Amino acid sequence: MKADGAVKEYGLTALMDLEEEIQRLKKDLHAVILAHYYQESEIQDVADLIGDSLQLSQHAAKTNADVIVFAGVHFMAETAKILNPSKQVLIPDLKAGCSLAEGCPPHQFKRFREKYPDHIVMSYINCSAEIKAMSDIICTSSNAVKILSRIPMDQPIIFAPDQNLGRYLIKKTGRELVLWSGVCVVHEMFSERKLIHLKVRHPGAKVLAHPECEQRVLQHADYVGSTSGILNYVKQSSDGEFIIATESGIIHQMEKACPNKTFIPAPPEGDCACNECPYMKLNTLEKLYLCMKNRTPEITLDEGLRLRAFKPIQRMLEMS
Ligand code: 13P
Ligand code: SF4
């Protein structure tokens, strides 16, 4: 891709081939580029690995690259740093946050946790290092059911910060969980009313949904799973039409893998592009290039905090 549009904003050389420059920098830095499925397609196309939160953290845990360029949101890059203290971890835009992480401030969560002294804390990976450090075990959307099933039935549990994933887990496993009331701003926007209309117009389409969606949307789903779970379902299915109730960035890999199948993004309630994550989309190809060229923004962490946050992530990786 040529950089014409970004010349003024970023001071890039006109007609610079960004993909080529990124590949050159990758060799120079001995870097690996990890990208989440919700990133813009042009970022996905230059990445060494595209994956869901679990796959990306598993890869970050074993990479031998010197520099990890994390095209995702802050908690994902921070997790890579927690796993790799001696490596440089770069992120294209430091402001690429997450409503779940931001909706769970450590001082408030500390007080919440103190109300349940006999409970252990299972946290969704979409949280800050401070929340991870207060947790006993971490999970992602692809291993949450498995991890929960390994915790003894008589052990009371706090689940944070996603109340929708928490409710899904309660329904799926029959366990009681004390929930922190966080939400994903993307997945809570899907409209049940419009989804029903869409199903009437496309009676053969399978509805695939992420467990961050609300129960009223999940109840219409033929399959509920993480981004990689949804992608695998599409690849293996003999069906030809799918309604996708998760961030629309995932459709890029679906179209590449299954060019003859049809993917319909589940509609949000308003006339907005609310099925695009505003945090994920802060990263652009230009910013990816610039963070590699300037070796900033970089993720840094206090070592004491890192060590405390490392333990529950390590437990998750061992159990996954
Ligand atoms: P997964 O990558 O686990 O599917 O989670 C999706 C998500 O919202 C990440 O922010
Ligand atoms: Fe966070 Fe939702 Fe964006 Fe994922 S899609 S990064 S959970 S706000």
Give an overview in words:
With about 325 residues, the chain is α/β, with parallel strands linked by helices. The chain folds into three domains: about 5-95 and about 280-300, NadA-like (Rossmann fold); about 100-185 and about 305-320, Rossmann fold; about 185-265, NadA-like (Rossmann fold), CATH 3.40.50.10800. It has helices at about 5-10, 20-30, 40-45, 55-60, 75-85, 100, 105-115, 130-135, 145-150, 165-175, 190-200, 215-220, 225-235, 250-255, 285-295, 305-320; strands spanning about 30-35, 50, 65-70, 90, 120-125, 135-140, 155-160, 180, 205-210, 225, 240-245, 260-265. Strands 2-1-3-4 form a four-stranded parallel beta sheet, sandwiched between helices. Helix 12 links the parallel strand 9 and strand 10. Helix 5 packs across helix 16 (about 305-320).
Topology:
Layout: H1 7-10, H2 18-29, E1 31-36, H3 41-44, E2 49-51, H4 53-62, E3 67-71, H5 74-83, E4 88-90, H6 99-102, H7 106-114, E5 120-124, H8 129-133, E6 137-139, H9 144-149, E7 157-160, H10 163-173, E8 178-179, H11 192-201, E9 206-209, H12 215-218, E10 223-224, H13 227-236, E11 241-245, H14 251-257, E12 262-265, H15 285-294, H16 303-319
Parallel strand pairs: 1-2, 1-3, 3-4, 5-6, 5-7, 7-8, 9-10, 9-11, 11-12
Helix pairs in contact: 2-15, 4-5, 5-16
The protein binds 1,3-dihydroxyacetonephosphate and iron/sulfur cluster.
Residues 38, 73, 98-100, 126, 184-186, 212, 247, 277, 279-280 line the site of iron/sulfur cluster (SF4).
